[in-house]
Write a structure and sequence with these properties.
Blueprint lengths: L4 H12 L10 H6 L3 E4 L3 E9 L2 H10 L11 H10 L10 E9 H7 L6 E4 L20 E3 L7 E4 L2 H26 L9 H4 L8 E9 H11 L6 H17 L1 H12 L6 H11 L6 H4 L3 H11 L1
Antiparallel strand pairs: 1-2, 2-3, 3-7, 4-7, 5-6
């Protein structure tokens, strides 16, 4: 279970408090505040705080246009223009702070996005909970034969059962040894900062993660993509739902131009033009490598 009864009570108490403010608020985000949205078997995301809305993006963008230019285009049109032309600063005016509970190996991927403020649960100071990510059977896959960093077909039968048993047994044994090492019952007990090194990468950690909307969109563009690893993609998908309620116009533009769009190289654009003229273009005549051609064909169908 992602949250304990005590944590659920704390969330309920936090949500019962209201504060008077003159700053912009978003009803959709107010509904999300503090609520734990479950992810994987023990994980969650929670909105702790946020700043700005769609109008804040437009307000920042129009500063550089000068006084009296608000009628140039409506807010949604302006936001789509900014997204279409890869403007960044106006989107940086919005920020969000999330509380995330996630497996350590997912956190190691996540932290590669070095554009946020992060404070992680300290295993030097506190004892980690006995909670591990164990994949569901439908997410136990073989190595992909075409992508060195991806999954292939689903493992089945005895092999899948054996893998799951190994994951469960190794996690349990590692945590048993962790508890035995830090115990001060009849011994001094190993320092927590040393004992944690024996824990597996599927144990859960937690952090507060604060990021501006521009960099959040970059994170989501990579991690909500179908090629991203499943275990981080489900977190990105959960965040997408929150962002859609926070800045609906900006998220709609992001979904259209980034998640649903495609970026073509100069060679790819040339191939499209040749195809439109009726020319038969092949990988050999495209000037692309086999990998580039495969991806290009995936885009144009």
């Amino acid at each position: 279970m992602p949250i304990s009864p005590e944590q659920a009570q704390e969330i309920a108490e936090a949500r019962s408090q209201t504060h008077t403010t003159m700053r912009a608020t978003v009803p959709g985000m107010e509904a999300h505040l503090y609520t734990a949205h479950e992810v994987l078997d023990h994980g969650f995301i929670r909105v702790i705080d946020y700043m700005g809305d769609d109008s804040a993006i437009c307000q920042a963008a129009r500063v550089s246009y000068g006084k009296g230019t608000k009628s140039v285009q409506n807010d949604e049109g302006l936001i789509r223009y900014l997204m279409r032309h890869w403007h960044s600063t106006p989107f940086e005016m919005c920020e969000i702070k999330l509380h995330v509970k996630l497996p350590v190996f997912v956190a190691r991927q996540w932290i590669r996005h070095r554009t946020a403020n992060v404070n992680e649960y300290s295993a030097r100071y506190s004892i980690l909970d006995r909670e591990f990510y164990i994949p569901a059977p439908e997410h136990i896959n073989a190595q992909s034969v075409v992508n060195n960093q991806g999954r292939g077909k689903i493992l089945e039968g005895e092999e899948a059962a054996r893998v799951l048993e190994i994951l469960k047994a190794d996690s349990t044994r590692a945590y048993d040894n962790y508890e035995a090492m830090i115990s001060d019952d009849g011994q001094d007990g190993l320092a927590r900062e040393l004992a944690r090194m024996n824990l597996p990468a599927n144990i859960y950690t937690q952090w507060y993660w604060k990021v501006d909307l521009h960099n959040l969109f970059h994170f989501l563009r990579l991690r909500a993509d179908s090629h991203a690893q499943y275990e981080i993609r489900v977190y990105a998908d959960a965040i997408c739902k929150v962002v859609a309620d926070w800045v609906p116009a900006a998220y709609s533009a992001f979904e259209d131009y980034r998640l649903g769009g495609a970026q073509l190289s100069g060679k790819a654009v040339d191939c499209v033009r040749r195809m439109l003229k009726g020319e038969e273009v092949t990988q050999e005549t495209s000037g692309m490598s086999k990998g580039e051609w495969r991806e290009f064909m995936g885009v144009i169908g």
